[in-house]
Amino acid sequence: MAKKKYDCLKCPGYCCSYPIIEVKDRDAARIARHFDMPMEKAEKKFFKSAHGYKRIMRRKKDPHFGQICQFFDTEKRRCTIYEARPFPCKDFPGDSNCGYYDFLTFERTAQRDRNFISTTDHSED
Hints:
This protein is α+β, with helices and mostly antiparallel strands. It contains four helices and six strands.
């Protein structure tokens, strides 16, 4: 396995802002167990059907990306269900490189600001 060339702990959670994070049956069951709740209740509280998918993560407001996974701590910029997260989150980016992290590292160097967060939100322009 190739060594990772990114550090999620230095990232503001860009992948968690994706509008579609698919949740398969096995992932949904694991998340329900994590919260010690029946699957039926977890279905209504944590997931929704949208964009042609049976089940995706619900989202909430985020100051950097507009919307982000409901399980993302927007203060600490970390996943609150890391051990129970669904497979797409465990598998991301699926390679030794993360395109956003590469871009973020470049921008932080160019801006001379190691905390700079690159976004696509231009609502204040």
